[in-house]
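Justification of computing resources. Each target in the renewal requires a structure prediction run like the one illustrated here; the chain below, 338 residues long, is used simply to show the kind of job we budget for.
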Amino acid sequence: MKYRQLGRTGVQVSEICLGTMMFGLKTDREESLRTIDYALDAGINFIDTANVYAGNESERIVGQALAASGKRANTIVATKFFFPQSDDINARGLSRRHLIEACEASLERLQTDWIDLYQLHRCSPEVPVDETLRGLDDLIRAGKVRYIGASMFPGWQLVESLWIAKELGLNRFVCEQPAYHMLDRTAEREVIPAAQSFGMAVIPWGPLCGGLLTGKYDRDRWPADGRWQDGKDNWGREVTPLAWQVLDLLREMAAAKNCSVSQLALAWCAAQPGVTAPIIGPRSYEQVVDNLGAVDVELDAADFERIDALVPPSGYAIRYYDGAGYVDFRTHSARSVV
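Resulting structure tokens:
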């Protein structure tokens, strides 16, 4: 396992981050604990969770695993807040009130005195970012949070948050967590360049596109336990003919390198400019074993060129359906279904 600097901080994190969205949801507690233990033993020191995952259960499992392993002090624990935590209208969002309550609850579930990286799970037009940053700054000064970050922020909003932090003398975001993988490179347009310009780490989520980039799907093969069925997943994404061409190429390349398709896709993501650590989201022990093998996969210039020829930088090979039509990211507009 290799380690990389987390943005402008002095913290070193493993080149792969263990995501825990499945723990307590599709992965039971016993297998989740086994998966975390394996990852820690393999050199992972970076774990990402969120208070909304599995109705808080993911945080509890992470806390239990770290307490049992005795490795809390050596592990960078990241969690997130934003989504509703109860029927209370104020138990959600980015208000100072909610973020302080959410932090206290996460600390208890994680069985820890501090959160290494506390992230805004989404941005919000309803709360001025200066209110959120002031609340987060107070948490840092109180020793309950070490660093703060964002997730799914557009490039302009990242820059706005950095400007406000500078103007008000507050702690700034050290990282951004965008959706980014080989079939959707649109984060390369503004988000990743903005992060690079201002020394922010990039920790992409979904580097395997919900399992599509594992190679287990084909044009006429849709495993019943998979997120993708009949060309679409539960988030409104749809496979295109180009996506299948990419998968055909990956199978060919993976066979030549004697690795799995998922390992190749993760290695590609980890090697992209600006990327610090892709976040894997294993559902089973076997998947984490496979995913961590990506650190041994090497790609050369010819490999990148072959992939770029199909999905060029800033391009994409899947479509997003928003309920009214398919969103075309090249024009940032929706068009009718055809």
